Amino acid sequence: MKFRQKDFVNEFYRFCELLQNKTPFAFNRFSDGELYILQNKELILGESSSKVGSSTINIGYRKEDHKHFKPEEHSFYREKLIDSFKYVKKNYFKGLSCRCCVGKNEFKWQLDFHGEYDDNFTWANLLVNGNYSRFIHEMYPIFNEYKTVFICNEHARVSTFPFVVKDFRVGYNAMINDYGLIQEIKDWIDKNNIEGYLFLFSASSFSKMAIHQLFEHNTKNTFIDVGTTLNSFMDMRLDRSYLKSFWLNDYHPDINKICIW
């Protein structure tokens, strides 16, 4: 497999330039949770503990991140996730879990599972860790130049965003329970002839399938998986290390971490 070296900071500014130039693109992020689903491992994210395959770990997640992927019941949704992971198209960027965060073996597994190398591979963590302050100070202001649609948790507050003109909401285990929302968003785009809009996603694994299918359906809009980056504006919990470091002055070295490829 032909391998391309990348620079964490330069890659971030690549996306800023696309936004500033109003060039439509999709940025889809496959973090460790999606990695486990792609590997067809049972995944449970709960309040006080989590389960990956046969291993239980004492790490809890906030309510909006709770999910349960059952390989024997949810194969349809895994196939849709695989489709989004393997989809190749101009300006469709896929963020992988990098080797400095998940280890060399897991990083290699993603490349092997994908098959042919995609020049549009990038970091799943591109907007966080050492790039988070850049995201807030340099990318976030560009959102004001767009009419924006936000797809997020049912409990999130979006009234603080002056650029948001429409929102769609998801609930628990959205990749399964809210899968039909993808068609609803497609219909809304078609009915209203939506072009040149920015679609932001903070909807866990649902985001991955939605971004793929929506960009495949209409390449005249931009779709970005922002994950938890805007939680501070949405009255959502600041429990990620990079969020606590930036917003709560609770220092964690991740806030300065420059991820490697």
Quickly count the helices: 10
Give the fraction of residues assigned to helices. Answer: 25-40%
Q: What percentage of amino acids are in beta strands? A: 15-25%
Stretches where pLDDT falls below 50 for ≥5 residues? none
- Shape assignment: globular
Total number of beta strands: 11
Cα-atom radius of gyration? 17 Å
Biggest β-sheet: count, sense, barrel? 7 strands, parallel
User: In total, how many domains does the architecture comprise?
Assistant: 1
Helices and strands, in order, run as: HEHEEEEHEHHEHEEHHEHEH
Please, what is the average pLDDT?
Answer: 94
What are the key terms here?
10 helices; 35% helix; 261 residues; four-stranded antiparallel sheet
Can you walk through the features of this model?
This protein is an alpha/beta fold. It has one domain. The protein is 35% helix and 18% strand. The longest helix has 14 residues, at 204-217. The two termini are 15 Å apart.
Topology:
Blueprint: H1 8-20, E1 26-29, H2 32-38, E2 43-45, E3 50-52, E4 55-57, E5 67-69, H3 75-86, E6 92-96, H4 99-102, H5 104-114, E7 121-123, H6 132-139, E8 148-153, E9 164-170, H7 174-177, H8 181-191, E10 198-202, H9 204-217, E11 222-225, H10 241-247
Parallel strand pairs: 1-6, 1-11, 6-7, 8-9, 8-10, 10-11
Antiparallel strand pairs: 2-3, 2-5, 3-4
